[in-house]
Amino acid sequence: MNDRRFYRLVPALAATCLTVACGSVLQLAGIEGTGDSTGSASGYGSLFVNGRAFATDTTQFTLNGETVTEADIRIGMQTRVEGDLLAPRADRVTAARSLLAPIDGISRVGAVKAATLSILGQNVQVDEMTRLVGTSLDALHSDMLVDVHALVSDGGGLLATYLTVADDAYVPASQELLVTGYIDTLSATELTMGSLTVDLTATADTDTLAVGDRVRVQGHQPSRGGNLIATTIARDTLDPAPGSYADRAVLVDGVDGNTLIAGATTIALGGAQRLDRSGATIEPGTHVIARGPVDASGLLTAVDVEVLPAPDVVLRGQAAVQNGEIRVLDQAVATRAVTQLLESRAGAARQFAATDIRAGDALTIVGYRDTSGDLVATRIERQDALALASAYGELSELVTGDESTRMRVGGVQVVTDSETVYESVAGTEIPKAVFEATATAGLTTQAWGVEDQAVGVLRADRIRLLNSEEDIAGR
């Protein structure tokens, strides 16, 4: 299994790719030029890509080759935008899935907020930043046919940004499947992508393919786990055009000094300004945005670069708003231009800004602690209501007592009492004494309960340790 660590980039409505094809001029940090960008979008009405808003009044929308409306383009979908970066305006938005295939296996390691799915020989990382529509991580199983949008690395790993269930009871050979990835080996009759073998005997125009090409393959799989019989295969290049200006969101495949390799894209960091304060090291698997001019050879020289790590804090509670500051479970929440904003209230307008948040709003905050200890939101979801408040994150400041125990979970002050239920990673109830003997600083923990805003604590009904390992294959 590919165990490379993934880091999240969360610019906006999906993980999007923005291509400037109209000869517009972008000026940023004193540099001008036409170009293209990959990134993610986070809002509607205006399409937000890499923290930049694009008007969509006259935009044409396409999803998986079909003409659609803006309402069909969902947060998390991999999207290409063609338009005018200077306006900025989107003339054409095209979203396309990366995978349509059954789940072959599910592996979870450590905290149950993340999992790796085995899908057509590819390892697909799913975590709290994956937009799961109509399902949940716990509900996924190997009979499901899933529609996945993802960032793709040349090491065979995919970082899912959007996942929905196309069929809850998939029947082998009943559906044409799709896989996106890089060619590892190639012959006249077959190729391999990860652990998947693709039969090419029924396809044409494969003579121009080469090892290392990124391709999209459609075909049928007669039996689960067997070869994919390709009906069509095409290159799926996202390389920036030479002589353009690029705004690129990538998974890093390799690092050579100050140069990043991501598929066929090469990015020179040089004197690039680091925009985030996550402290995350840029290494293989890191998800970055790099912006800058592209020379005649295709090298992108970054003016700035931004990294967002995988989320390590998840809070659910009611908002408190004072002087423009948002607090949830007594934690100040910082936002950035690339923060995803998801409106889930029934009947509410899809357009949503952080300034729209009001005291008492039910919010889910997904984010990370930066080098200053501040909580930076990578996603904020506003909901109708929350049955319980909860905190997920690193355990610290554990103070035990006969009647109650105090601790911090993801920075939130948590208080237990005689009615609190303590659980192991499997959800099995354990004695308070066993919990206290096991719970050491740094362990990932989750607490559910009632928020006491008057004193800024979460009074826990239930608390669970999440740092054991469990592997679930072919659930």
Automatic annotation (TrEMBL):
Swiss-Prot/TrEMBL keywords: Signal
Signal peptide: 1-23
Keyword Lipid metabolism: no
Segments forming domain DUF5666: 109-162, 180-233, 320-381
InterPro entries: DUF5666 (IPR043724)
Protein's UniProt name: DUF5666 domain-containing protein
Taxonomic path: Bacteria, Pseudomonadati, Pseudomonadota, Gammaproteobacteria, Chromatiales
